Amino acid sequence: MFLLSQTDPTQSQAITSVLFYIFAIMAGGSALGVVLTRNIVRMAVFLLFTLVGAAGLYFLLSAEFLAAVQLVVYAGGTLILIVFGVMLTSKSPFSRFEPKLGEVIVALSLGLILLFALVMGMMRTSFAGEPLDTTGGYPVGRLGQALLGDYLIPFELSSVLLLVVMIGAAYLAKGRRREVEPEGLRRTASAAMRRWS
Amino acid sequence: MVNSMTILAQAAPPAPPLMQSFFFDKLGVSPSPLAVLIYSVALVAVVFLPIVSLVAMFCIWWERKVAGHMQSRLGPNRVGPIGLLQSLADGIKLILKEDLIPKDADWFLFRLAPYLAFAPAFAAFLALPFAPDFTFEPRLAVGLFWILAILSVEVMGVILAGWASNNKWSVYGAMREACQMVSYEIPLGISIIIGVMSAGTLNLVELGHLQGGGLHTWLIFKNPFVFLSFFTYFIASLASNKRAPFDLPESESELVAGFHTEYSGLRFSFFFFAEYAAMFVVGGIQAALFLGGWNDPFGLIGYFYQKFLADGNTTGLILVNLIGAAIFSAKCLTIIFVQMWLRWTLPRPRIDQVLYACVKVLLPLSCVLLLGAALWQLLVPERPGVPWSDRFPNPFAWSDWSSVGAGAALVIQVILALIGLGIFCAIVGWVLYAAASGRNLKQRLTDPAPIETGPVETASA
Predict the structure, then answer these.
(1) What is residue B405's predicted lDDT score, i.e. its pLDDT?
(2) Would you call B7 an interface residue with chain A, using a CB distance cutoff of 8 Å?
(3) Are residues B33 and A15, on separate chains, in Cβ contact within 8 Å?
(4) Based on the domain organization, do A53 and A26 belong to the same domain?
């Protein structure tokens, strides 16, 4: 994060904290918005802001490549897919969710348990690591070499996984072949159209 | 949080950009983080926002002029010298219009969508390398990837605009647009990968420095695969900008106005600002990655920049930067002109033809080019020190080229450069010929000749 390039560490920490709070409030507040809103497309928009907030946090941590990947894959890919699915399958444009009280209680308690577990886990872990060596600028080349060197097997495995998913999705989306109609049936226009759909 | 922040404080960061140090030296203020933050925000507000607005206004006027002249009419010619203030007049008109929101539209999303469409295009300007020191953040190591990433957020703005309007035609436009933009992101990305692979860096400023040695060092002439990938990138960028012939999302003759049917006034103008800003950004990527960035074809800018940097001559540096910025903008505007030219020339295909062109033509082509470029990288030896270790390669050091087989690479680059130059000169010559011979047809642009009345010959029975 380039704001740390100055001699006064306390001020740089203050600025970084302010920016952290901005992005964290954006991400957390939008996540709250996803849960609390009733309109499904608005949920997708709030999710977009959550993802952008997370990308901002990655930028703050000097993980520039990861932030850009987050934007490309999540905001520009997964979210579009979600919105597409919503638009193509929702019965009316403004269908609203009406959660029952039982569902709300179950979801809230599960969420609180998860929050508790995550906070306990984070507080008991020591995140000691080496500082990122950004003397010559962010090392994108080293990332590439690590992906194709030390971490080659996970890389190849994930690409095989993606390929399998793509093939499976294409197969599932292809639809069933209709059975060939026997000769002699009167071919109406709608029957012909049904054959070609 | 405390742990990671103290870890980061120990990391050694790269040197601050030249313009920032120059500015703070002139002011006599020490560059504390708060001052740097204020400087960055002020830079964006005072320099980049006007640039984007001016670019959009100029492009809107230019588009109408180009359209007019290609259709044998004049285009805007009343407001201002050659109609130059037409965009300003249109802007004022749009601001003064009534702010209409359809009653059943989703008010939150309807209001949000124009900003979601404009903000990414504007944010992408922050990475464009206008000149080695006139870049907002020259240390952004993933500059090219950042532009790609932020432009993919623009798709959401368009989809939301179509959806929130509660209008069938808008939803059709939004659906088509999402399909098209997301599908064409694949050949777009692969073409960029080909260029980046040959250069070895994602940093746009370094890419510009790499191409500073003259016409033959431009990345487009590096090997035939990068040459062809420039064209696939150009076609894919047309689709991702919703420019003709891929302008189905806003196809005026089919969908009233596509996804922005229900928008009027200032919100409508935001979409057009976004479109022209995105055109400039995409032209900027092509200029920076393939066409040499801020460098002129003779390598003078690179040479003088190195010389002035070594001498510490700040006036000379600023001059070189200004000329470089002008050259970069000229290249972007040339690409924008070609995009406009195509818009008013080609007909519009159907959406299934558009997707056919993407998935069955461009995608296999770009994959084959990627394979070819990778094999070329592996098999053809290059000049040592290019591009990973040398930051300022000296292209005039001929001894560097004479190492093992690197001369072959130089010869191929020069041949490709000559081919490219030939194509460019042919097109420019063609346009000039058309302009010169069109003088005979100029009378069409004025009033038509009066109808001659005389004896009418009737056909004999």
Answers:
(1) 59
(2) yes
(3) yes
(4) yes
Instruction: For chain A, list residues with pLDDT below 50.
Output: 5-6, 184
Q: Do A2 and B388 touch (CB under 8 A)?
A: no
Distance (Å) of CA B337 to CA B51, B58, B279, B283: 18, 12, 10, 10
Q: What is the pLDDT of residue B248?
A: 72
The predicted pLDDT at position B237 comes to: 93
In chain A, the largest separation of any two C-alpha atoms, in whole Å, equals: 89
Residue B155: count of CB within 10 angstroms of its CB: 26
The residue among A61, A2, A11 whose CA lies nearest residue B12 is: A2
The whole-angstrom distance between A55's CA and the closest CA on chain B is: 11
pLDDT of B445 reads 55
Encoded tokens for A70:
């987050």
Is the CB of A80 less than 8 angstroms away from the CB of B3? Answer: no
DSSP per residue over chain A, as a string?
-GGG-SS-HHHHHHHHHHHHHHHHHHHHHHHHHHHH--BHHHHHHHHHHHHHHHHHHHHHTT-HHHHHHIIIIIIIIIHHHHHHHHHHH-SSTT-B----HHHHHHHHHHHHHHHHHHHHHHHH-----PPP--TTS--HHHHHHHHHTTTHHHHHHHHHHHHHHHHHHHHHHH-PPPPPPPTTS---HHHHHHHH-
In this complex, is the C-beta atom of A5 within 8 Å of any C-beta atom belonging to chain B? yes
The answer to whether B16 contacts A5, with C-beta atoms less than 8 Å apart, is: yes
CB contacts, 8 Å: B164 with chain A: 41
pLDDT of residue B71: 86
Best residue in A140, A145, A148, A162 to probe B by mutation, most B CBs within 10 Å? Answer: A140
Distance from CA of A184 to the nearest CA of B (A): 33
Q: ipTM score here? A: 0.81
- pLDDT for B413 equals 84
Residues 121-160 of chain A with CB under 8 A from chain B are 126-129, 131-141
Domain positions in chain B are 50-96, 102-433
Cα B117 from chain centroid (whole Å): 16
Helix B154-164 to helix B107-124 angle, to the nearest 10 degrees?
160
Domain count of the fold of chain A? 3
Residues of A whose CB is below 8 A from B15: 5
Structure tokens at B32: 């504390």
Kindly give the parts of chain B with pLDDT less than 70. Answer: 1-16, 249-256, 383-406, 439-451, 456-461
Q: Which residue in B337, B391, B44, B381 sits closest to B208, CA to CA? A: B391
CB contact under 8 A, A77 and B152: yes
Shortest distance between the Cα of A141 and any Cα of chain B, in A, equals: 8
Tell me the residue range of the domain where A147 lies. 139-174
Residue A31 lies in a domain: yes
d(C-alpha B11, C-alpha B7), whole Å: 7
Which B-chain residues 164-203 have CB contacts (< 8 A) with chain A?
164, 166, 171, 174-175, 178, 182, 185, 200-203
Task: Return the CATH number at A46.
Answer: 1.20.120.1200
Contact B153 A75 (CB under 8 A): yes
Q: What pLDDT does residue B12 have? A: 43
| pTM score of the predicted model | 0.85
Task: Kindly compute the dihedral angle of the four CA atoms of residues A83, A84, A90, A95, in this order, to the nearest 10 degrees.
Answer: 20
Residue A133 included in any domain: no
Q: Are A45 and B160 in contact (CB under 8 A)?
A: yes
